Amino acid sequence: MIDKHWESAEAAVADIRDGASLAVGGFGLSGNPIALIEALLAQGTTGLSVVSNNCGVDDWGLGVLLGARRIRKMTSSYVGENKEFERQFLSGELELELTPQGTLAEKLRAGGSGIAAFYTQTGVGTQVAEGGLPRRYNPDGTIAVASAPKDVRTFEVDGAPREFVLEEAITTDFALVHAARGDRHGNLVFNKAARNFNPLAAMAGRVCIAQVEQLMEPGELDPDGIHLPGVFVHRVVEVGTDIPKRIERRTVAVEGA
Q: How far is Cα 22 from Cα 82, in angstroms, rounded to an integer?
């Protein structure tokens, strides 16, 4: 078996060049591959096209790349926690392909499974199917690029005709993901909410780079407990269990209330 362990995040992302496409794991700030993101920021890569559920916040996650003007396009399902994202999009500096969350997950999974496209009911009767969603604005606020109409077909389901919209799969040059544990062969185990878009992003990347909190030796992971097999993973970097982890909003109860 191939030893996929790399010594540093910097070495693992060194061949990600300007203009590359990335699938990046994370749901909100949970499961963000922050060590890989910061290594990519430090090396100066720019013009990136990123597929991720969201774009972090202004000073964390993908938000650090966005703030440094390294991202050209985002394909996301939620963008509501990042003021710089809003500013760049509305001023015409950033292209956005807004995609329903479940559809985005399936587009990544399909790409990693060798499925070119699929039909879904999500988005039927909306601009998702009909086109016209703003993808990039001009500086004066007019629409520079709008989404194109998608193919809609009728299929019989449970004896009744229903409309479905065609969605194309997503594959990217690289994937960046975070896992709790991984072995030298690339098998990964995720922790709770971090098992969200991380496995799907990993599948979609032609080269998947995983940061893991604990690097295990082959055979130490329970084969029945592996969440993503190593066939999808090409590089593994150990970042330690004390790596910083952020949450978007802390909510606490008032004592005695």
A: 19
127-149 as b/e: b if 16+ CB within 10 A:
ebbbeebbbbbeeeeeeeeebee
What whole-number distance in Å separates Cα of residue 54 and Cα of residue 37?
14
Cα separation of 113 and 200, whole Å? 10
As averages over each run of 10 residues, the pLDDT of the chain (257 residues) reads: 93 98 94 97 97 93 96 93 92 96 97 98 96 95 96 96 98 98 97 94 98 96 96 97 84 79
pTM for this predicted structure: 0.93
Going by their DSSP bridges, the two strands 235-238 and 5-6 should be labelled as parallel
Residue given tokens 């004592």 in the structure block: 255
Cα–Cα distance between 93 and 87 in angstroms, integer?
8
Q: Could you say which DSSP state residue 160 is in?
A: E
